[in-house]
Amino acid sequence: MNRHFSVIIGCILLILCSCNRGVMYQKYVTIPDNIWMASQPVSFTVSVSPTDTVSYYDVFINVRNTDSYDFSNLYLFVDITNPAHVTERDTFECPLAMESGKWLGHGLGDIWDNKIRFIEDKRFGKGDYTFTFTQAMRVDKLPAIMDMGLTIEKSPPSRPKTN
What we know:
By secondary structure, the protein is mainly beta. The chain has one helix at 2-17, and strands spanning 23-30, 35-37, 42-48, 57-66, 73-81, 87-95, 106-108, 111-122, 127-135, 141-143, 145-154.
């Protein structure tokens, strides 16, 4: 019962927090049975309109896990396919807890939400971009990962741009 209440409250908070201005894209994918198989990547396709090509954006990886997650981080293979169908791969570490074991992010009950910046000040060209996340934790079945998400939002205007 307590877990269901936490999930409902978490969903309500997610809806309220998702009304951010400047968010170009935000989506979550639920991991079946909270066990992320290494053979089952999670993909997001983002369509960039011509009006979005002049702005700078930050790209965030969103991880929702339970407090029964056995690790302090999550390693990912991140493949980004651009509109020209060229794919680049990166290995990325998502820190989820401090060395002391204290969870990072925002928690409600036994559920933790993390929003980790992956790319800063990116200008996208027009077309479809596909972001594919594959868990790279050296275990085939990674338990306690509930959802994976992608958020793309406008970079703060006060920050100097790098590209």
